[in-house]
Design brief:
It contains 15 helices and 14 strands. With about 450 residues, it is an alpha/beta fold. The longest helix has 14 residues. It starts with 20 loop residues before the first helix and ends in a 12-residue tail after the last helix.
Length: about 450
């Protein structure tokens, strides 16, 4: 695959992309002024109908980077085609919903129609969207395949296929589903693949199958410093100590909105009940919650009715909630990639954020591994009145002697007695006088 461009565009305004005046009007209304790096590089290449493989961190503006040129291409077509023209696949309902909302905002002054196809919503209404000249479909792979059981010709006139958070889709086991959908798409389409990292083997593998002579844009590395995020860790003795630390942080740590991560659904439910039990305004988000309840929780968080969200990693990808400036890892994530996506919920759009990891002794190696992975040392912190006895692993004592130390007196070694073999005939002659023999 070709390397990334060696130079960065100096585009300073969206008007320099020669976008339709209706899109520029929407951009202005949304408050966008200067294009971000991913937008500066991806928009011109997309408008040139190039296939792209793009690595960009969460919060970098990549959604607009692919939506704007996609909409521009549709507006440039004189007559509206009868079939779906753009398909955007993403891993979770929450991310799909946010892309849908942003697309609606950008389409406000146009006649373009956007549809949302995800699990947990009315199947027949979705069928109508697929059959009634919808221009753009934003979908999760599983629900698309369910619709394929009825008809699989929806995307045969597709002009543009976009995969967002491709690495996450593969991690969630959607590789075969994505390839099955791609097989039913127009072979002459343009394809854009966005991923948080290009180090993911599955991303490179699937890109080789889907992209034609792609341009590669790597706008970040997996070790980006997150300079606008203060990363801290607090040591905890045990689970109960963690609960006390969590309650203190949510009550006293300055924040507008907080996001608390747990590794499992059961742990998330436990934390939700504990936080509500001390009178804090909190919501719960995990994969087993009904879609209507998920939507209601996200609405309450956006409106500020609740200011704390307890979530599993379902929320680590795609959530873009303004005002989240505190992320607490109650459970340490299983790897550095998941950690990056969790903390990526704060410090977005150049705002400042704080992340705090609560670490007990069984999690120390995980946390230390994440620090090595990111090549960063997190700020060690204690909470007054809640100090624990656990202070991290004890340093291993050196096996060698310290310089200048006195030798300890070693115990005397026992004398080694050499055993002598005594023959039986010699044993019988013990005590008897030996008769000397005559010399020859």
């Amino acid at each position: 695959m070709p390397n990334s461009p060696s130079t960065t565009s100096t585009t300073a305004t969206f008007s320099e992309f020669n976008l339709d005046h209706r899109l520029l009007k929407a951009i202005e209304k949304m408050g966008f002024t200067t294009p971000k790096p991913v937008q500066q590089q991806a928009i011109p290449l997309t408008l040139e109908h190039k296939d792209l493989l793009v690595s960009a961190e969460t919060g970098s503006g990549k959604t607009v980077a692919y939506l704007l040129p996609a909409l521009q291409q549709l507006l440039a077509v004189p007559a509206k085609p009868p079939r779906i023209q753009v398909l955007i696949l993403c891993p979770t309902r929450e991310l799909a919903q946010q892309i849908f909302q942003q697309s609606q905002q950008l389409c406000e002054f146009t006649a373009l129609k956007t549809g949302l196809i995800t699990g947990g919503s009315d199947f027949k209404k979705q069928q109508a969207l697929l059959n009634n000249n919808t221009d753009i479909i934003i979908a999760t792979p599983g629900r698309v395949l369910e619709h394929f059981q009825i008809e699989n010709a929806y995307f045969q006139s597709l002009r543009l296929l976009i995969l967002d958070e491709a690495d996450r889709m593969l991690d969630m086991g959607f590789s075969d589903d994505v390839l099955a959908i791609v097989e039913q798409c127009n072979k002459q389409r343009q394809t854009l693949l966005f991923s948080a990292t290009l180090r993911h083997f599955g991303v490179i593998k699937i890109a080789d199958k889907m992209l034609k002579s792609p341009r590669v844009l790597s706008l970040n590395t997996i070790h980006d410093g997150h300079d606008n995020i203060t990363q801290q860790l607090v040591l905890a003795d045990d689970h109960d100590h963690k609960l006390k630390l969590l309650a203190w942080l949510l009550e006293h740590e300055p924040h507008e909105k907080a996001l608390v991560f747990a590794n499992t659904r059961l742990r998330a439910e436990e934390l939700y009940n504990a936080v509500r039990g001390v009178g804090l305004r909190a919501g719960l988000l995990h994969g087993e919650i009904d879609q209507k309840d998920r939507n209601r929780t996200m609405f309450l968080l956006r409106e500020g009715t609740i200011n704390t969200l307890i979530a599993t990693d379902l929320a680590a990808r795609g959530l873009d909630i303004k005002g989240i400036n505190l992320v607490i890892n109650f459970d340490i994530p299983r790897n550095g990639i998941d950690y990056i996506h969790r903390i990526g919920r704060t410090g977005r759009a150049d705002e400042q954020g704080t992340t705090i990891a609560l670490v007990k002794h069984t999690e120390w190696n995980l946390m230390a591994g994440i620090e090595r992975f990111l090549k960063q040392d997190f700020i060690r912190r204690t909470l007054k009145g809640l100090e624990g006895s656990y202070q991290g692993p004890k340093k291993l004592k050196s096996s060698g002697k310290a310089a200048g130390s006195k030798d300890k007196k070693e115990p005397a070694k026992k004398a080694v007695v050499k055993k002598v073999k005594v023959r039986e005939r010699d044993r019988k002659n013990i005590g008897k006088r030996r008769t000397p023999t005559k010399a020859g």
